[in-house]
Please model this.
Amino acid sequence: MSASVKDKVLLERNPSSGYSGIEEHSGPWHSFLEYSTCLVFPVLFGLNVHWATSRLYELELLWLVALAIPLGAVGGDLVSGVVHWAADTYCSEKTPVVGPSLVKPFRMHHIYPRDICRHNLVETVGNVCILAVPVLGLCLYLMWIMPQSGWLAFTVVCVALVTVATVATNQFHKWAHQEHPSTVARWLQRTRLVLEPAHHQLHHTEPFNKHYCITNGWLNPLLNKIQFFRRLEATLTFVGIETAKAKDKRLSRTTTAE
Ligand SMILES: [Zn+2]
Ligand SMILES: [Zn+2]
Model:
C-alpha cells in the first residue's frame, strides 16, 4: 500500500470522532530542536525574569511587575490570535518551512480537532519554544549591553510573560478539546484564566473565521467587534498579498477560462 493510500485509509478511520487515526511525528532534526528548546526555554525565562525584576527592584520600580502580568496575558493572547489567523488564512501546506510546521497542523486541526489531545507535552509546546528561545536570548543580550535601563527591564518582563503565555497556548488549546481535562485545567477554564472550551468551539463553528485567540480568548470579543482580522486581510489584499481562498478562486477561474 503506498503512503498516500495508507494515509487516506487512516484518515477515514474516525471521520466523526475528531481523531484522524494518523500517528504523525516530527523528523529527527525538528524533534531535536523541540526537545532541546523545551529544556532551554525555562532556564532563559527564569534568567530574564530574575535579572529584569532585580533591576526594577534596585530602581524602586518593582510595582511595574503588577502591570506586566496582565500585559503578558493579553500580549500572549494577541500573538496566538495573529499566528493562528495567519496560518488559517494564508499560504498552504506546501509553503516552505511554515507549510509543514505551522499551516498544516492548524488546517488538520479543523478537520480532526481532537488529534491535539494525543500529543505529549513536547509535541504540544515544542514548536513555540523553538521561536521563543531566540527572543529570550535577545532579551538577555539587550539587558547585558544596557544594564541600567529601567524601561528595558520592564519591557523584558513583559516580553518574557508574553513568551510563557504563548508557549503555554497549545497546552490550553489541548485542554479545550479534551473530553476529561484535569481538575486544575477545569478550574482554570471556569475562571477564564485559560481558553474555555465553549468559547473556543465558536472558532470551530461556521463561518470558521472568528475567535482566533486561543491562549485565554480575552481579546476575541474586542477583535470580533472591530473586525480586526477582516481589516487586516483587506489591508494585505490592498498591498497585493491575497488570502489562500482568494488565490484558489483566482487559479480555478484561470483554469476554467483555459
Ligand atoms: Zn483555526
Ligand atoms: Zn481548536
